[in-house]
Hints:
Quinone Oxidoreductase, Chain A, domain 1, five-stranded antiparallel sheet, 10 strands
Amino acid sequence: xxxxxxxxxxxxxxxxxxxxxxxxxxxxxxxxxxxxxxxxxxxxxxxxxxxxxxxxxxxxxxxxxxxxxxxxxxxxxxxxxxxxxxxxxxxxxxxxxxxxxxxxxxxxxxxxxxxxxxxxxxxxxxxxxxxxxxxxxxxxxxxxxxxxxxxxxxxxxxxxxxxxxxxxxxxxxxxx
Length: 176
C-alpha cells in the first residue's frame, strides 16, 4: 500500500516526507494507521548515526493509532481497535517467557536492525529499499507495521494524540 513517511537519507540529514510502498501485514503483523508519534532522543541518535542503523530509514518508536488490518494469527487486536506501540521482543527467550521483554535476548536485532527479524524490509520507494521496522514499528509515517507482541490495545475514549510516548518515554522514566 502507498503511505507517506519521513525518510532520513544521510547521517544528520533532514526527515524528508516521501511516498513509499509498505508491505501488507504478515502472519503475526498488525497494520496501524498512525494518529500520533512522539519524537524521542533515540530517533535523533539514529538519524545522526550514533546508533548505526542502515540508511535510508524511517524512524519513530512512540506511535499510537488505529488498527486497519491484522495477519491471520493476530488475536489480541482487530481492525478498528486503538493501540499504542512499543519496542519489539521475541516472545520466546527466557526473559520474555518470564514476563521481562525489556531484557529480551533478541532486543538489539529486533529493534535496531532496520528490517524485520528475518531480514526482510517492509518499505520501498520504487526499486529503492528503505529500512524500517525501527523498534518494530517505524511510526514516523502515515501507517506502520507492528506485531501482535508490540501493540497494546487502549480504550477508544483515550486521546491517541497523547498516548504515543507511553510506548517509550513514559515507561522508560517509570522503569528508571
